[in-house]
Every structure is written in C-alpha cells, then in structure tokens.
C-alpha cells in the first residue's frame, strides 16, 4: 500500500507542478519507481505514465502546437529515442561490474545503473545551477536538440530539460511552447516504448498495471489542477527538491543500493 501512496502522490504533484515548465514528471517519477523496481523496469514504467499523461495534456493544449517546430525537432527525436532505448536494453543485459554484501543484502553495481546515475547528476545540475538552467539554443539547432533530447529520453527518460532548452528561444507563445513540447514528448514516448521491448513486457507481466493505472490517473488529476490553479506557482523550490532527489537516487544507483 505504501508503494501506491508514494508513487501516486509523486505523479500527482510532479504532473501539476511541472505542467508549465515543460518537463519534470519523468524526471521525478522514474527515481521513485527505481526505489521499488529494477531500474530498467522503472524507466519503462515511468514512460507508460509519462505517455498517458502527455496524451491527456495533448487533449487540453495540443491545438496550440507549432507544426514546423514539431517536425524539425520531433522527427530526429523519434530516431534518437529508438537508439537510446536500444542502448538501455543492451546495458541492462550486461554483467554487474561489482557485487558485494551489505547488512546481509546482496548488492550489485551494473553498467546501466552507473550510466543512469551519471545522467541524473547532470540533469540534477540543470535544475540546481542557475547558469545551466538559463542555457538555450536558436531555431537552427532544433534538429540537434531533437537528437539529444530523444536519445537521453530513450536511455533514461530525461528528455524534457534538454527539449525545453532548445524550444525556449523559438519565439513561441507560452501556450505554443507548452503544446509543442507535449506533442514532441508524445512522439518520443511512443518511440522509446517500442524500443524497450522485453522490459515493457516485464511491466505488463509483473502485475503492476494497476499501480501504473493509479499513477496515470493521479498524473491526470495533477495536470488538470495545474492547468486550472497553478499558473503562477514558482518552480524554484520544486527544482531544488528535484535536484536533491536526483542526487540521492543517483548515489544509490552508483553504489548498487537501489
């Protein structure tokens, strides 16, 4: 029962508070799921909730999306997301780098955990360091942004911060920025879920679909509340909490504790 409470509360809060930033649900939800499930299953499970939530936001805001930006950014992102998902599957199949026993519990450090923990630290710094948070790129770099965002999205689920850095200088309205990011996120989510293959099947076969369903409904509620009530909420406190969470879980992954 504690798993349902923690995961659903996380999905609700993250979805609501990050609706207008363009990223955050997957960044926050994946580490929480990784506490309870194997990392590759946590990434795939978070991707399912992320896609469902983005489809819901697409229904709310999709009409404002900029088609040209979606094409220039989204098409490279689809290809790169497949590559990132392929890398995740390959890394998950590699033997542990180190195994040890702590407090009677067998622990292991795997290549996948090390790679994802490093990415979590990097994207945690984007949340924490103001200079990194303000990084942005012009429209001519949109295809490059799609490749980078799609690849990291497929590998670890960290696609939103990179996407926002490239879209923020595209001259879009606030509604256009949000909607365009949602459309691109849906494309990346669909692509990476296809690439996860056996790990997605483990999510389905493990009996955790009710949990993911509850998390998805919680994310829907969070997005609905965010769309109605949280337009002026400051993101700085949320960013600090996200960064701290990422660093803590990254340390656990790197040490084999998670």
Q: Indicate the structural class.
A: mainly alpha
Oligomer: single chain
Q: Rounded to an integer, what's the Rg over CA atoms? A: 17 Å
The number of domains is 1
What is the N-to-C succession of helices and strands?
HHHHEEHHHHHHHH
Shape: globular
Number of strands: 2
The main sheet orders its strands as 1-2
Q: What's the main sheet like?
A: 2 strands, antiparallel
Strand content range: under 5%
- Return the average pLDDT rounded to an integer: 81
The helix tally amounts to: 12
Topology:
Elements: H1 2-17, H2 25-36, H3 39-61, H4 67-92, E1 98-102, E2 105-109, H5 111-128, H6 130-133, H7 142-156, H8 160-167, H9 174-196, H10 198-205, H11 209-229, H12 236-254
Architecture overview:
- With 258 residues, the protein is mostly helical.
- It has one domain.
- 75% of the residues lie in helices and 4% in strands.
- It has 12 helices and 2 strands.
- It has helices at residues 2-17, 25-36, 39-61, 67-92, 111-128, 130-133, 142-156, 160-167, 174-196, 198-205, 209-229, 236-254; strands at 98-102, 105-109.
- The protein has a two-stranded antiparallel ribbon with strand order 1-2.
- Strand 1 and strand 2 form a beta hairpin.
- Helix 1 packs antiparallel against helix 2 (25-36) and helix 8 (160-167) runs antiparallel to helix 9 (174-196).
- The radius of gyration is 17 Å and the shape is globular.
- The mean pLDDT is 81.
């Amino acid at each position: 029962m504690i798993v349902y409470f923690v995961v659903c509360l996380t999905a609700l809060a993250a979805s609501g508070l990050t609706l207008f930033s363009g990223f955050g649900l997957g960044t926050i939800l994946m580490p929480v799921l990784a506490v309870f499930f194997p990392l590759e299953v946590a990434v795939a499970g978070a991707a399912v909730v992320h896609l469902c939530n983005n489809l819901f936001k697409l229904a709310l805001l999709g009409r404002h999306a900029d088609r040209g930006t979606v094409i220039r950014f989204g098409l490279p992102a689809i290809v790169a997301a497949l590559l990132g998902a392929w890398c995740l599957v390959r890394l998950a199949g590699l033997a542990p780098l180190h195994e040890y026993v702590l407090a009677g519990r067998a622990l292991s450090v795997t290549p996948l955990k090390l790679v994802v923990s490093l990415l979590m630290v990097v994207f945690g710094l984007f949340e924490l360091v103001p200079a990194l948070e303000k990084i942005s790129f012009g429209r001519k770099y949109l295809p490059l942004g799609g490749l980078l965002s799609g690849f990291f999205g497929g590998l670890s689920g960290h696609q939103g911060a990179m996407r926002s850095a490239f879209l923020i200088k595209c001259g879009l309205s606030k509604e256009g920025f949000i909607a365009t990011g949602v459309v691109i996120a849906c494309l990346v989510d669909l692509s990476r879920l296809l690439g996860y293959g056996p790990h997605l099947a483990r999510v389905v076969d493990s009996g955790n679909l009710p949990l993911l369903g509850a998390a998805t409904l919680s994310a829907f509620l969070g997005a609905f509340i965010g769309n109605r009530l949280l337009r002026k909420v400051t993101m700085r406190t949320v960013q600090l909490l996200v960064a701290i969470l990422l660093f803590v879980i990254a340390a656990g992954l790197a040490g084999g504790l998670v």
